[in-house]
Structure formats: structure tokens, C-alpha cells
Design brief:
The structure is a homotetramer. Chain A has helices at about 5-20, 40-50, 65-70, 105-110, 125-135, 160-175, and strands at about 25-35, 55, 80, 95-100, 115-120, 140-145, 155. In chain A, α5 links the parallel β5 and β6 (about 140-145). Chain A contains 6 helices and 7 strands, in the order αβαβαββαβαββα. In chain A, about 45% of the residues lie in helices and about 20% in strands. Chain A has a 7-stranded parallel beta sheet, with helices on both faces. The first copy, chain A, is α/β, with parallel strands linked by helices. In chain A, α2 runs parallel beside α3 and α2 packs across α6 (about 160-175). Chains in contact: A-B, A-C, A-D, B-C, B-D, C-D.
């Protein structure tokens, strides 16, 4: 791109940003793991972004990367909340990177930062996140087939999971 | 706005976002406190945003709010990393809200998420953040007059503080 | 007690401490909640102390207080890892108090500090702790009836729970 | 030792423990770093133990190990609050080990767990701890020569540092 084009892009971007600045974007956390769940996570990320929600994840690979990739594929916004001490460990689909330095302790921040939480696959770390999300009163939706645990709602498709999460988000935000 | 205008805005926004998606935005953390330092913090936030840096703060009042307000005044991007368990405690100039739930423990994440750190006023909490930033090797700049502590660089003006921070950021990012 | 008796007690205490100082005490975390589970938790705490294990808990009420109370009833040692910023919130059966200041984030420390974990009752916070314990490879035993979740072993009685936990501890400690 | 002697030791130990169970032990955190400060830290640890205070540290090497070693040399009690995920990284003078798993984030717990804090040497991590200790209102004493930072009291000798810390502890505990 020539410099003039960059400037024009930036102007468009800034005016677009300014026009939406007072709208609070809903944030939905997508948690889970397992390479076999990446396709479903990517669709969840894409659907969330198409509905205007910012996608929050733990910022690393598999489900976390797939959800962010899905969101970016349609121009959505992504936040990664990393366990380590440097942003270089984040996947490449993150717009904004939060470096916590507190290892697994960052799982609390991942779910607390979502107005709702969608679970795609996952194992023990995901269990900890579900426990925290329910403790904090966040709406949690498990995409079937998924972790068997009491508390969350269940959804049969990515579409349904996103629908339920967004409805729940409105309760969290009190709107 | 009519629905058609909203759609058009969104399209512009999306295409702008897509065009910049591969650019890694520099993130600079602005830390400190004290109502008497808000004016300087607001200028720091504004200057950072004008230079394309995302402004990261602890998300609450005084210096944190002022830095975010300054960034938003020119269409910049802001992230707030909150100590509590709900995003409602964040100030109203935050685009993206990270809810950590770990109280003062979030100070580590605030500075770790910056490729550089600018200090405006502040007291004991700020001291903890400076200690963490230096531990992690982040470039730290204290805007004069400011905390007397060994380690950080000093800057006489907001302009100089931003200049030094951005130069340091490039080292952190390895670019 | 007269001063001379206090001195004599202290001397006995010091010589006893010195004689055992090279023995690493096994630490077992007891987690869970629910007033209806206090009796079982107290027995678990007592049995652990009788077997020489230090009892680690989250330091607050219900199951946490009961487990510590049981341990102290037979002269055991107890550690409470508190979520808040002051030791005054700890129950009165704690020998040693760790004040974390990181709210629910302290759940990670509670289970990480156990060479094994025993679960008595509990709900969402306990779920988070189980998830973390399994993530870190700690042996986890759920006392029946208890949380239904995949991963932990199950025990029908406090005696069996303690037996399984102590056997698992030896693996964690590599002895 | 023969089994009978072990039993007798244990009986003595238990009765001694029971006799002191209602005394709340003062906890003092010793923070800092630098191999050149180990001798002074060891004396601080010893003096604290002789005065009946439990010594809390970050559980690793140098000043942390020396303070614990000093306390154990006179039969005192020590707690180590570790940054990693396993107790094996703790030094060998720890009676009780808290494994936090949150890296530098554990610095908050180290100072929050002290009714007072003594600083021996140290650098950036120590600065973070001093900042947190002052934020939480803990009395902080820097042993001269030491970090130059506003807020803490200064002591010229280990003896004076311990004296000042114990006096401050009584305020923290409200006794």
C-alpha cells in the first residue's frame, strides 16, 4: 500500500471506531482444548464475531487459536489472556494481548472477562474455568458433545451455543 | 442512525480492521495515581494513541481513567485490566475490559501487558508495578516530577515519555 | 501456667521440633463446602493429623473450618490459604495463615500445596479446585457422596479417602 | 532412634503443640535477594525465631533460604511461598510449603502473609513486594544498607530490624 492509502485506511478506521465508541461490545470467552475440536471452535468464533461480540480466549493453541481465527476471518475483534510473561507466546489471531504472568491462575481472568462463556471440548484446565465461571455467575454453555458437568447449559450446534451465550450476556451486562 | 447507515459503518469498520490485521499494535501501559496527575496522564494517553499505540491501564479512576480518556479523544484503542470480578467497575473509556478477580495481583498483568510502561504520579501500588515491570525487563519511563526509584528512565514532558516508551517497545517486541 | 512451666513447655517443644526437622511432612489439601458436610470433613482432618499429615485448606468456614478443627483435636498441624488481604478472616483452627489477596485465584494455591487432595462436598469453587488439581497431576479423592466429575478417585469412607490420599502423596513426593 | 523413642518424642511434641494451640504466632516475612546479604538474613531469621515469630519467605534461595536457615538453627518455624507448581523447588529449611503456581504474582502473598516485613538487600522483585506491603498497610523495615525507597522504616542492625518488625506486628494483629 502507498502511504496515502494507509492514511486513508487509518482515517476510515478512526471514524468507524469513533462512531461505535459508545457501544459496549459484548465479550464472550471461548474455552476448551483438543485439536479435534478446532473446527467447531472456529465456527463459534466466526459466529460470535458476525454477531458483534469480541472473542476472549486463553491466547494459546488448539481451541483458543481456532476461535480467534474464526473471529478474524470475518473481521472480528479478539483478546488473548496469556499465562506466561511475554506476548510472543500468543497465537497470531490476537488483536489485543494480555500477559498475566500467573500461569494457570489466568484461567480465572479468561472466564471473568466474558459476559458469557462457551465451552468447546476441553479437559481439566477447562473444568477449572467452568468452576470459576459458575462461581462468578457467568452464563456457561457447553457445545455438545462436551464435558459432562452439572451447571452449564448445553447446545447442540455452534449456532445454538452462540445464541444462548449472547442471550446470557445481556443478563450479565444488565441490559 | 438508520439501520442502513449502521451496516455501512460496520462494513467500513470491518474492511479497515481486515486491512490492518497483520500489524501488531504496540501496547503501552500507563500506570500511576493522583487526581493532580490526570491532566498529564490524559496527554500521555492522547499522544500514545496518535502514534498508534494501544493504551493499557488498570481500568479504574484518576490516572487510569485519564490516560484512557486521552486515547479515546483521538480515536485510539484502550484496554483496562480490572482487579475485581465484574466489568462494571471499569471507567467508561475502555474498549476492552479484562476482569481478573485477583485484586492487587492484577498489577503484574497491567505492566506485563505493556511493551513499555509510562509512570505518571502514583504511590505504593505504582511502586509494585514498577518493580514487576523491571523484573520482567519492560522499559519503564517515569514522567517528571514522579516517583523517586532506581531503575526507570526519566522524561521531562509527556512527549518525551511517549517517545522513550515507543523506542523501548520496539526492543521488547524485537522489531 | 507459671513462667517456669512455659519455659519448660517451650524447651520440650523446641527439642521435639529439632528432632523431626528433617522429616518432610506430607501436606494434604481438604476442599469442599456445605454445612452438611462438616462432620465428615472433621473426621477427615482428624484422620490426616493422626497419620502425621499437615492439613491444608482455604482457611474459611464450613468444610475448611471443620477439617482444620478435626486436625487440631488431635494436635495436628493446619495451614489456611486465604482469599482476602488480612489474616483475621481465617478460622480459629489455623496454625499457619497464608494471606494471598487474590480472591478465588487462591484456589490454585490451595490444591497446588497439597501432595494429594480430598474433596468433601462442595460446589462450583470446588470444581475449579478439582480442575486445577488434576491439571497439576495431584491425586484427587472424592469422598462419597460427592461431586460427580470425571478424573478423581472415589472413596466410601473418610478412612478410605485418607488412605488413598496418603498413598497418592507418596507418588507426588517421589518417595 | 528406636520406635519407642519416636513414640515418646511424638507424644511430647503433641502435648507441646496442644499447650500452645491457642497462641497466635506472629508471622514476619523476610524478603530480599543477593548472596552478599545471606549472613544478615540468617541472623534476622534466627532472631525472629528466638522471639517466637514464624518466618515467612518466598521459599527459594539466597536471602529466602538464609532467613529460613537461621530460624531453623534455633528450632523456629518457617513457611515458604513458592512461585512454581511443585514443592520440590523450595529450599530445605521450610517446615510448611505453599505452592502458588502464579510466578511473580506470589510476591503479593509473601508480604500479605506477614504481620510485618523485613527487607534484606533485594532488587526489583523486592521493590514490588515493598510496594504491595505498603499498599496493604503492613509495617515494613529496611535493614541498612538497603533499597532506597520512600515509605519503610530503616534499621541499622538485624536486632533493631526485628525489634521494629515485632512492634509493628502487634499493630497489624490489633493486640
Amino acid at each position: 500500500m502507498r502511504a496515502a492509502d494507509v492514511d486513508r485506511e487509518n482515517d476510515l478506521f478512526h471514524s468507524a471506531c469513533l462512531s461505535i465508541r459508545r457501544v459496549v461490545a459484548i465479550q464472550v470467552s471461548v474455552i476448551g482444548s483438543g485439536a479435534e475440536n478446532e473446527e467447531r471452535a472456529e465456527e463459534v468464533g466466526r459466529l460470535l464475531a458476525e454477531r458483534g461480540a469480541t472473542v476472549v480466549t486463553g491466547g494459546l493453541g488448539e481451541v483458543m487459536a481456532a476461535a480467534a481465527r474464526g473471529a478474524k476471518s470475518v473481521g472480528g475483534t479478539t483478546i488473548g489472556i496469556l499465562p506466561g510473561e511475554t506476548r510472543s507466546e500468543g497465537n497470531k489471531w490476537l488483536d489485543h494481548v494480555v500477559v498475566t504472568g500467573i500461569g494457570h491462575g489466568r484461567n480465572l481472568a479468561v472466564v471473568a472477562s466474558g459476559d458469557a462463556v462457551i465451552v468447546v471440548g476441553g479437559r481439566y484446565g477447562t473444568l477449572a474455568e467452568i468452576g470459576f465461571a459458575l462461581t462468578l455467575g457467568r452464563p456457561v454453555v457447553v457445545l455438545e458433545p462436551g464435558l459432562e458437568v452439572e451447571g452449564p447449559r448445553r447446545a447442540r450446534t455452534p449456532d445454538e451455543a452462540v445464541e444462548v451465550a449472547l442471550a446470557g450476556s445481556r443478563n450479565t451486562l444488565g441490559t
